Automatic annotation (TrEMBL):
Name listed for the protein in its UniProt record: D-alanyl-D-alanine carboxypeptidase
A GO biological process held by the record: proteolysis
Xref: SUPFAM superfamilies: Hedgehog/DD-peptidase
Molecular function GO terms recorded: carboxypeptidase activity
Keywords: Carboxypeptidase, Hydrolase, Protease
Claim: Ribonucleoprotein is one of the keywords in the record: no
Organism from which the protein derives: Sphingomonas palmae
Location of the D-alanyl-D-alanine carboxypeptidase-like core domain: 59-188
Pfam family, one: VanY
């Protein structure tokens, strides 16, 4: 197995913080339960077709063929009962930092249950995305449960693995991250699919220690491919609200 630890050292401690003391980095590279992923190189990202996304959305180029097949299959299947669309795809470190620091009054470890700190989000890999389900579920006190009960989600759960997608954070996952029925990552339908081996290497630790459910082809270990490229010189993240305060 190639050294995934190379990915760990590529994530700068300065990317973890909103303000104040940075949270501790565990010996396995995790911060607030989230594994380190760095960021995807812009040259590997491409736009999801506009008719398959709620709004502008980019992913690694290798993901697009399966995502296209998945969402077009969903659109023509009466069992879906609506539409499934890409909602939130690749997020840069700066964007992820803005999401993570949105509620600074809440303790970082509480926020981290549902949002990864920058440098530790699957979204930054360009292989993960959140899906939107239509018709939209409104006025629901339990968003996860209500979405999970929709025909569109049930179709996705049954079919997404056939197109190379797996649910990263299933119910009661051992990683300690909140169940997110809308969040899936791409690892390809088989290791022979273009790009799948690299994606599987990037997620090797997550897949081994905190298995996805439903998962894809979990028995295969990748041992002979180079790791996917990631940024090695990342800008330190600063809280965008702090900048605004200084300008005032
Ligand atoms: Zn997500």
């Amino acid at each position: 197995m190639l050294a995934v630890s190379a990915l760990v050292t590529a994530v700068p401690a300065g990317a973890e913080v909103c303000s104040g003391t940075p949270p501790a980095i565990a010996s396995d590279g995790r911060v607030l339960s989230h594994l380190p992923y760095g960021d995807a190189p812009p040259s590997e990202l491409t736009a999801v077709p506009a008719d398959l996304a709620v709004r502008g959305c980019t992913l690694r180029r290798d993901v697009l063929p399966d995502l296209d097949r998945l969402l077009r299959a969903a659109a023509t299947d009466p069992a879906v009962g609506g539409r499934i669309l890409a909602l939130s795809c690749h997020r840069s470190l700066t964007r992820q930092g803005g999401v993570f620091c949105r509620e600074p009054a809440t303790e970082a470890d509480t926020r981290a249950v549902s949002v990864a700190p920058p440098g530790h989000s699957e979204h930054a890999t360009g292989y993960a995305l959140d899906f939107a389900f239509r018709p939209r579920v409104n006025d629901c006190p339990d968003a996860e449960a209500c979405i999970a009960a929709t025909p569109a989600f049930r179709w996705l759960r049954a079919n997404a693995p056939l197109y190379g997608f797996e649910m990263s954070f299933p119910v009661s996952n051992a990683q300690g991250v909140k169940w997110e029925p809308w969040h899936w990552r791409w690892v390809g339908t088989s290791v022979a699919e273009p790009g799948a081996a690299r994606a599987r290497l990037l997620f090797a630790t997550a897949r081994r220690r905190f298995p996805a459910s439903p998962g894809v082809d979990t028995a295969i270990e990748v041992a002979t491919v180079p790791p996917p490229p990631i940024y090695l010189s990342l800008p330190a993240f600063t809280d965008p609200r702090a900048k605004r305060r200084r300008r005032r």
